[in-house]
């Protein structure tokens, strides 16, 4: 492989990575009225910032009220209801003449 072909191959490998390096990271902005944090992108996008436990990054949101804990409780309630329904159907099926 000659020298110019080598440089061309290197350029073709480096160029696709260039647009990814042009993206800027979002900036955290905190609303003065509510105290909630938001992520602002240089392109003008805005989204609420969440803590690691899934709650909104706001001062009035307690850290113990995580989305994951609530979701676990909801799933457990749903499984209990499903189990009761299966038992009801089993009894209904067994009591058929």
Features:
97 residues, alpha+beta, three-stranded antiparallel β-sheet
What would you note in describing this structure?
This protein has 97 residues and is of the alpha+beta class. Helices cover 45% and strands 11% of the residues. It has 3 helices and 3 strands. A 3-stranded antiparallel beta sheet has the order 1-2-3, with no helix packed on it. The radius of gyration is 27 Å and the shape is flat.
Secondary structure: elements and pairs:
Blueprint lengths: L2 H12 L3 H4 L5 E4 L6 E4 L5 E3 L18 H28 L3
Antiparallel strand pairs: 1-2, 2-3
Largest sheet features: 3 strands, antiparallel
Q: Share of helix among residues?
A: 40-55%
Order of helices and strands: HHEEEH
Strand content: 5-15%
Low-confidence stretches: none
Rg, nearest Å: 27 Å
Question: Given the helix and strand composition, which structural class is it?
Answer: alpha+beta
Coarse shape: flat
Number of helices: 3
Q: Numbering strands along the chain, what is their spatial order in the largest sheet?
A: 1-2-3
**Could you report the average pLDDT, rounded to the nearest whole number?**
77
- What's the β-strand tally? 3
Distance between the termini: 85 Å
